Amino acid sequence: MNTTENFRGVERRHTTSVRGEQREAGEVAVFHELGKALTSSLQLDQVLRTIMEKIDEFLRPDTWSLLLVDETKQELYFELAVGKGAQALKDVRIKMGQGIAGWVAQHDEAVIVPDVSQDTRFFSKVDEKTKMETRSIVAVPVRYRDHCLGVIELINCVGSEGFQQRDLALLEALADFAAIALENARHVKRIHELTITDDCTALYNARHMEFILETEIYRSQRYGYEFSLVFIDLDHFKKVNDTHGHLVGSKLLAEVGMMVKNACRRVDFAFRYGGDEFVIVLPQSSKENAFVVARRLHKLIGETTWLASENLNIHFTASIGVASYPADAKSKVELLQLADEAMYMVKNSTRDGVAAAKFGTLPTAV
Prior knowledge:
This protein is α+β, with helices and mostly antiparallel strands and 366 residues long. The protein has 2 domains: 3-192, 2-Layer Sandwich (Beta-Lactamase), CATH 3.30.450; 206-362, Alpha-Beta Plaits. It has 10 helices and 12 strands. The strands form 2 sheets. The protein has a 6-stranded antiparallel sheet with strand order 3-2-1-6-5-4, sandwiched between helices. Mean pLDDT is 87; it is low at 10-19.
């Protein structure tokens, strides 16, 4: 070998060494950045955005996606997708065990498929949906402890030299960061739910009602919406506790809470205000619409046989008050007070009825 060839060989090895050092330095920077994101913020989006950027930077797939496991339906859904055809993936669901991603989720193993046409696990219907051509797939499980939360899948990133072990190690490390971020987000969500939820009825609590009322007043002022509030008090509920005990009373409140929640629209908010009192906030609902809701709830409560599953067959009625913003009140305190006063108008006279602020007692026929 002549001097020139020796020089070129040294130059190639030097270039490869420099690139390796640069790659290593880049990976260290990635882990530092992700570690910083995880410790400085509990925002899932921020961590996933960093992971997304680093996958694009180092592995350059046509498309990459994060699929999460829906435990109830035993399906994978696309939580995040970036690249060609990503928009078409948002409504796609894949059954556990179906396709490469489904197989990875089911078996909790990483998979590298250089040529999907040679792999019987490949699920071609996703390509039909996205109008793209998948040639290769790399997929790794996103696991927290021994539990698979989802899958990171890269489309068309396997080059002529294959998918290097170092690339797989990087991807698996990024999946670990994603798992930590997802688990942190779930814990934060659960803690938040506990702070705003009533233990007995699983409805929202009075503390959260304050926040919702402030939000609805803001929306009302900004967009010209009106909203209404329904205040429910169960008649003679003390007799249930005195006759059957407080444990039965708690079960009854839980059953009433479930009924109230089921009677609401998806946009409504139901709260246990305290004791045997319940409040429903009806966004973008006029006072007249609130009358309809209040009468329907009054009829439903009075005609239901409660705790039939316990063979107790309890019957009782309710006193209900209605008030609206801004027709009746100019603040959340005044709104709640007027609905409460309307309820007590019924409570202190006939019970078993519905009344409205500035209207008085209403006919209860629906």
